[in-house]
Amino acid sequence: MPMAASSAPSLAVVIPAYNEADTVGAVVRVALELTPQVVVASDGSCDGTAQAARVAGAQVVELPENGGKGAALLAGLQAATAETVVLLDADLTGLTLDHLQRLCGPVLSGVLDMSIGVFEGGGFVTDWGNKLTPHLSGQRACRRAWLLGVPDLGAERWPEPAITRHLKVTGARWAYMALPNVAQVVKEKKRGFWRGAQARTKMYAALLTYRARRPK
Predict the structure, then answer these.
(1) What one-character DSSP code corresponds to residue 155?
(2) Is the CB of residue 11 less than 8 Å from the CB of residue 104?
(3) pLDDT per position as a tens digit, 101-123
(4) Cα–Cα distance between 156 and 21 in angstroms, integer?
(5) C-alpha 142: how far from its chain's center?
(6) In whole angstroms, what is the distance from residue 152 CA to residue 127 CA?
(7) For the chain, what percentages of helix, strand and coil (3-state, to nearest 5) are there?
(8) Chain centre to alpha carbon of residue 61
(9) CA of 145: how far to CAs of 48, 52, 77, 182, in Å?
(10) Rounded to an integer, what distance in angstroms lies between the CA atom of residue 104 and that of residue 173?
(11) DSSP 17
């Protein structure tokens, strides 16, 4: 069941999105079953992402240029007002309210400082990617103030490594949460095989070289 209206203001869903008009609306609608505070940060999108999110019922922040997921995430966090946030990618499929409750429950109860969602049974490509690098998952729940304290959050095109490092530095309590039957629309499908493969290569290069680039 959706959370009671009295507790809804303490929880927000923040969704960074870049050219995800085909899927963002469905993600927003599921998020609205959890809380009325759903913020989509459109990262310089040019395909109707912002409009699709608004029609679905989200509060939308529009960045004038594509600055990367970190910049969009920071803008979404700054627009939200809730103490606890759930972070979602905008291209998810198979998402349900149960998945969101599973993700945020341990954080709201104080058992964990962060939960990280990992795909399970949603599709070979996304399952495989999550299993190899679960710490790079974009599906998370934690306190908004803690996330805003992540150094250089808005400067990282892909902020997950910076978040993971901050988990270690701060000694935060965290755990992985299985998200059965959830997947992402792969880049090769969204952009065509070659452009999608190129985008995927750039993404993993940025993610996996963070340690070498991070501030000392």
Answers:
(1) G
(2) yes
(3) 999 999 999 999 999 999 986 55
(4) 23
(5) 11
(6) 29
(7) 50, 20, 30
(8) 15
(9) 30, 28, 9, 27
(10) 14
(11) E
Burial of 123 (0-12, 13-18, 19+ CB in 10 A): middle
- Amino acid in the structure at residue 207: L
CA angle (99, 156, 193) in 5-degree steps: 70
Per-residue pLDDT of 66-94, as tens digits, reads 999 999 999 999 999 999 999 999 999 99
Q: Distances in Å between the alpha carbon of 183 and those of 90, 93, 126?
A: 11, 5, 6
Q: Is 21 helix (H, G, I), strand (E, B) or coil?
A: coil
Per DSSP, what are the bridge partners of residue 207? none
- pLDDT exceeds cutoff 70 at 136: yes
Asked whether the beta carbons of 34 and 2 are under 8 A apart, the reply is yes
Task: Name the CA dihedral angle for 26, 24, 159, 139, rounded to a multiple of 10 degrees.
Answer: 0
- Please state, in angstroms and rounded to a whole number, the distance separating the CA atoms of residues 183 and 195: 20
Distance, C-alpha 29 to centroid of its chain: 15
pTM score, two decimals? Answer: 0.82
Is 11 in contact with 85 (CB distance < 8 Å)? yes
Torsion angle in degrees (nearest 10) through CA of 127, 131, 136, 138? 40
β pairing state of 84-87 and 183-184 = unpaired
Closest CA to 138 of 36, 209, 44, 68: 68
**Alpha-carbon separation of residue 63 from 85, 121, 162, 191, 207 (angstroms):** 20, 34, 21, 21, 22
Q: Which of 192, 188, 215 is nearest to 203 (CA)?
A: 188
